[in-house]
Amino acid sequence: MADTLRTLVNSSSFSVLQDKLESWYKDYHVISCDQNLNRCCELVELTSKVQGQLFSILHLTAREGGQYGGVDTIKSRLLPWLGTCFTMTTGSVSPDTSLNLIQESVEKERKIRELSLSHESNMQKMETQLSTTRQELNTIKQELADAQLELDDTKNKSATTLLATEDEILQLRVELRAACDQADLYKRKMEALEEYERQVRMLREEVSYLSTEKALLQDRLVRSRSPSPLPRRSRSSSPLRGDSPTRAQLTASSRHARLVSRFGNLYALQRLQSEALVRRYVSDMETAQRIIFIATVESFQAAKLAYRQFKLRVRKTLSPTHLGPESLEDAVVDYIVRNLDLYDVQASVNEVISSMNLNPKIALPAELDFTLLSSFIREVCEIAFAMQTLEPPLELAFSSDGELFNDTKYRRSYDSEFTAPLVVYHIWPALMENSTVIMKGEAVTRRGALWRSRSSSPVRSGSPTRILGSSRSRSPSPGRLSASRL
């Protein structure tokens, strides 16, 4: 039976029958009636051949089951089917439905076979992967065991070196503490040495000053003992009085260097800090830089005016009792240098703030004022006041928006247009000594600076009263004229 069934399967009779049915269905309306009948007969013959093979298989199967094997199946299914002329007559299933059920059953069996084959293939793949994974796991376990052995070996070695390392760390900490103590000691010694050097410099200046006075007094004593009447007649107008150096003249170079350094630090540090403080309330960078520049210029003007007034008061106080070897003007400057702390800097700060509040080019929000720049203005006023005691005094270069850029006085800011010839606004003023630039300022150059300068007034360097006072102060005072004539 198995060979007959294998032959039926290999011959694919049902597939051939299905293909012929489909071909006949496609050509049914095209071919003639005789051709359709011929094809139908061909299918009947093929069906009968298949049925003959199936009956042969049925016979062989029943014989293999013995004398009574398959009797119930033949009685219940085969004999009723043969009695009804090969048609199953049931009350609930029609011939078309029976064929559909058979077709669905065949299709389901085919799908089941395909799924079974796919399942078997997947199982084989999974078994292959599982075996590969097991091999990798065994390899990793072996590597882990080796790493554990190496770790144990490293721990044993580290345990032996840890004690020595801790001892070295303790020793290094002790040495570090000793080095820190020694560094602190050296630092204190250096500070003491700097203090000693400062005192030595001061003592040397005092000794030089006293030696000069001693030589002058000895010279005056010799002249007073001399019988010649000429020195006595020219005592009040002796040129030696103007030749005696005062403290201000002796310390002029050191004060000059110190003040220039303070002005440089003011530009490099405190200016940026003040700009950052203003930028908290003003979003525009240009406005903040204009505010700092105007504050610097106004502070210089206020300090110069305060210095002239202070100098007039000192001259008025010293002139009745002045009998020293130096001139009255030198004595006044020397007194101011010795008593810079008498300068009322707060009055100048208030004056600068008032002037900035009236400036139409700058403004802060209504709830704030320029008192937030008081520390910066105070420092500028102190430096400017001290600069007036030098000979010649240090001044700020004149500046105005829209002027021609001068490379000897200013350097351009990083955001400038380096081909623009005119200045839009200034960031920091230049420091001058007579007509010599001591320290360059900073300016911003851009295209269209001339048009912008016409639409806005130039930077105020001071109020009209200040400008008038400064112009008058340039003319020599009567006391100075009398001293020069003497």
UniProtKB/TrEMBL annotation:
What does the UniProt keyword field contain?
Coiled coil, Cytoplasm, Lipid-binding, Membrane, Mitochondrion, Mitochondrion outer membrane
Q: List the record's Gene Ontology CC terms alphabetically.
A: mitochondrial matrix; mitochondrial outer membrane
Major location, coarse class? cytoplasm
One of the GO biological process terms: mitophagy by internal vacuole formation
Coiled coil regions in record: 123-213
What is the annotated localization of this protein? Answer: Cytoplasm; Mitochondrion matrix; Mitochondrion outer membrane
The record lists the membrane-crossing segments as: none
Q: Where is this region: Disordered?
A: 221-251, 454-486
Q: Which domain of life is it from?
A: Eukaryota
Task: Drop me one GO molecular function for this one.
Answer: lipid binding
**Residue ranges annotated for the Mitochondria-eating protein C-terminal domain, each copy included:** 255-445
Q: Which family does it belong to?
A: Belongs to the MIEAP family.
Q: Tell me what this protein is called.
A: Mitochondria-eating protein
Task: Give the taxonomic lineage as stored in the record.
Answer: Eukaryota, Metazoa, Chordata, Craniata, Vertebrata
